[in-house]
């Protein structure tokens, strides 16, 4: 049976990415070797790295003066690398979910952290607005898409200090004005590649301004200087990332991805809003188009498990909500076809009729 993959991460990848990765596992670039066993310094892999960096720059229109890095350690490593490299005295953060809170915790190891707004009071079901970022903050950090709670900031905020964003779960789902940012980072396992690589886009001039000593591996300048080849990079995930980037370009780039993502989200949210059984958990204006969180209304709540089982008979996988929200979460990343969303909506309608 065809599966409809709604996992939040690691998550669905395009058939193009999986097919090309599978082929390269057998024979990489005509070398007669598997991508699993080639040197990262071979000319064939160096070409992969160069092309992947160039395509990130092209798709996101990264301006001059920025570097694109492919690093290990996950997005969680960036929670400490950002303040290690950028925090002189004070940084401003918004607390919009589990990942944002983790980033705040790490930043506090390096200086003063001004949490300018939080939505924790309502279990992170909205994006706080009307806050001010102090002008003397070294940067303002926010999580553009809160993967667990299903809220999203789909624009580049206007503040008086440089921006830093964790875009792990919505990068490549819209055009971004990179020139507003000092750092953008994203773990690849949500919208790009298998787990193991993190994309970092960093403004070169933002570096070298802190007094503290930075361990070599945690210093962005190390990786910029060596083109993400200071140590062995995650070769396979980078190869897969390149396939996905090529695929995005072929489809028409991030504007086209956004058009598709909006259509998918609209379809699912309108089904939720017109349902007598299901209800969304997030303030409508702050809803994520990547991760759709919903629950059953109180009078039906004991049917949640049964719905997950029912959905699985239709090939629907990965819709169980994170334990801190409960209910359901359908992740609609770029690679998910709208047909899968239609199958989910039909399953919801059918289940509702049955009860
Ligand atoms: C998944 C996720 C993370 C954590 O990524 P790791 O690669 O597991 O460290 C951080 N931030 C956001 C927004 C995420 O979705």
TrEMBL record:
<comment type="pathway">
    <text>Cofactor biosynthesis; pyridoxine 5'-phosphate biosynthesis; pyridoxine 5'-phosphate from D-erythrose 4-phosphate: step 3/5.</text>
</comment>
<dbReference type="GO" id="GO:0030170">
    <property type="term" value="F:pyridoxal phosphate binding"/>
</dbReference>
<keyword id="KW-0032">Aminotransferase</keyword>
<protein>
    <recommendedName>
        <fullName>Phosphoserine aminotransferase</fullName>
        <ecNumber>2.6.1.52</ecNumber>
    </recommendedName>
</protein>
<dbReference type="GO" id="GO:0008615">
    <property type="term" value="P:pyridoxine biosynthetic process"/>
</dbReference>
<dbReference type="GO" id="GO:0005737">
    <property type="term" value="C:cytoplasm"/>
</dbReference>
<keyword id="KW-0963">Cytoplasm</keyword>
<feature type="domain" description="Aminotransferase class V">
    <location>
        <begin position="5"/>
        <end position="343"/>
    </location>
</feature>
<feature type="binding site">
    <location>
        <begin position="75"/>
        <end position="76"/>
    </location>
    <ligand>
        <name>pyridoxal 5'-phosphate</name>
    </ligand>
</feature>
<feature type="binding site">
    <location>
        <begin position="231"/>
        <end position="232"/>
    </location>
    <ligand>
        <name>pyridoxal 5'-phosphate</name>
    </ligand>
</feature>
<keyword id="KW-0664">Pyridoxine biosynthesis</keyword>
<feature type="binding site">
    <location>
        <position position="166"/>
    </location>
    <ligand>
        <name>pyridoxal 5'-phosphate</name>
    </ligand>
</feature>
<keyword id="KW-0808">Transferase</keyword>
<feature type="binding site">
    <location>
        <position position="41"/>
    </location>
    <ligand>
        <name>L-glutamate</name>
    </ligand>
</feature>
<keyword id="KW-0028">Amino-acid biosynthesis</keyword>
<feature type="binding site">
    <location>
        <position position="99"/>
    </location>
    <ligand>
        <name>pyridoxal 5'-phosphate</name>
    </ligand>
</feature>
<dbReference type="InterPro" id="IPR022278">
    <property type="entry name" value="Pser_aminoTfrase"/>
</dbReference>
<comment type="subunit">
    <text>Homodimer.</text>
</comment>
<dbReference type="InterPro" id="IPR015422">
    <property type="entry name" value="PyrdxlP-dep_Trfase_small"/>
</dbReference>
<comment type="similarity">
    <text>Belongs to the class-V pyridoxal-phosphate-dependent aminotransferase family. SerC subfamily.</text>
</comment>
<comment type="function">
    <text>Catalyzes the reversible conversion of 3-phosphohydroxypyruvate to phosphoserine and of 3-hydroxy-2-oxo-4-phosphonooxybutanoate to phosphohydroxythreonine.</text>
</comment>
<feature type="modified residue" description="N6-(pyridoxal phosphate)lysine">
    <location>
        <position position="190"/>
    </location>
</feature>
<feature type="binding site">
    <location>
        <position position="147"/>
    </location>
    <ligand>
        <name>pyridoxal 5'-phosphate</name>
    </ligand>
</feature>
<dbReference type="InterPro" id="IPR015424">
    <property type="entry name" value="PyrdxlP-dep_Trfase"/>
</dbReference>
<dbReference type="InterPro" id="IPR000192">
    <property type="entry name" value="Aminotrans_V_dom"/>
</dbReference>
<dbReference type="GO" id="GO:0006564">
    <property type="term" value="P:L-serine biosynthetic process"/>
</dbReference>
<dbReference type="InterPro" id="IPR020578">
    <property type="entry name" value="Aminotrans_V_PyrdxlP_BS"/>
</dbReference>
<comment type="pathway">
    <text>Amino-acid biosynthesis; L-serine biosynthesis; L-serine from 3-phospho-D-glycerate: step 2/3.</text>
</comment>
<feature type="binding site">
    <location>
        <position position="189"/>
    </location>
    <ligand>
        <name>pyridoxal 5'-phosphate</name>
    </ligand>
</feature>
<dbReference type="Pfam" id="PF00266">
    <property type="entry name" value="Aminotran_5"/>
</dbReference>
<dbReference type="GO" id="GO:0004648">
    <property type="term" value="F:O-phospho-L-serine:2-oxoglutarate aminotransferase activity"/>
</dbReference>
<keyword id="KW-0663">Pyridoxal phosphate</keyword>
<keyword id="KW-0718">Serine biosynthesis</keyword>
<dbReference type="InterPro" id="IPR015421">
    <property type="entry name" value="PyrdxlP-dep_Trfase_major"/>
</dbReference>
């Amino acid at each position: 049976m065809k599966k409809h993959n709604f996992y939040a991460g690691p998550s669905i990848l395009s058939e193009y990415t999986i097919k090309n990765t599978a082929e390269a596992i057998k024979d990489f670039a005509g070398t007669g070797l598997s991508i699993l066993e080639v040197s990262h310094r071979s000319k064939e892999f160096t070409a992969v790295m160069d092309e992947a960096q160039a395509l990130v720059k092209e798709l996101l229109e990264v301006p001059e003066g920025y570097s694109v890095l492919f690093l290990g350690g996950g997005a969680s490593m960036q929670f400490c690398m950002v303040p290690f490299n950028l925090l002189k005295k004070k940084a401003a953060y918004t607390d919009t979910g589990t990942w944002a809170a983790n980033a705040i915790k790490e930043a506090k190891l390096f200086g003063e952290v001004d949490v300018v707004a939080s939505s924790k009071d309502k279990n992170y079901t909205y994006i706080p607005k009307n806050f001010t970022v102090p002008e003397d903050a070294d940067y303002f950090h926010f999580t553009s898409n809160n993967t667990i709670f299903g809220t999203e900031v789909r624009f580049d905020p206007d503040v008086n200090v440089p921006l830093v964003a964790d875009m792990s779960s919505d990068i490549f789902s819209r055009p971004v004005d990179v020139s507003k940012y000092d750092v953008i980072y994203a773990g690849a396992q949500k919208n790009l590649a298998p787990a193991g690589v993190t994309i970092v886009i960093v403004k070169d001039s933002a570096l070298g301004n802190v007094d503290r000593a930075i361990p070599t591996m945690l210093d962005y300048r190390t990786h910029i200087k060596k083109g993400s080849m200071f140590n062995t990079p995650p070769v396979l995930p980078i190869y897969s990332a390149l396939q996905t980037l090529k695929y995005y370009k072929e489809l028409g780039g991030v504007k086209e991805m956004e058009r598709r993502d909006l259509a998918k989200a609209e379809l699912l949210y309108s089904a939720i809003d017109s349902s007598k059984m299901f209800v969304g958990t997030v303030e409508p204006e702050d809803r994520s188009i990547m991760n759709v969180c919903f629950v059953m209304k109180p009078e039906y709540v004991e049917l949640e498990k049964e719905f997950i089982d029912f959905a699985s008979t239709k090939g629907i996988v990965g819709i169980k909500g994170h334990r801190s929200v409960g209910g359901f979460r359908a992740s609609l990343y770029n690679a998910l076809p709208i047909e899968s969303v239609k199958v989910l909506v039909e399953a919801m309608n059918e289940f509702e009729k049955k009860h």
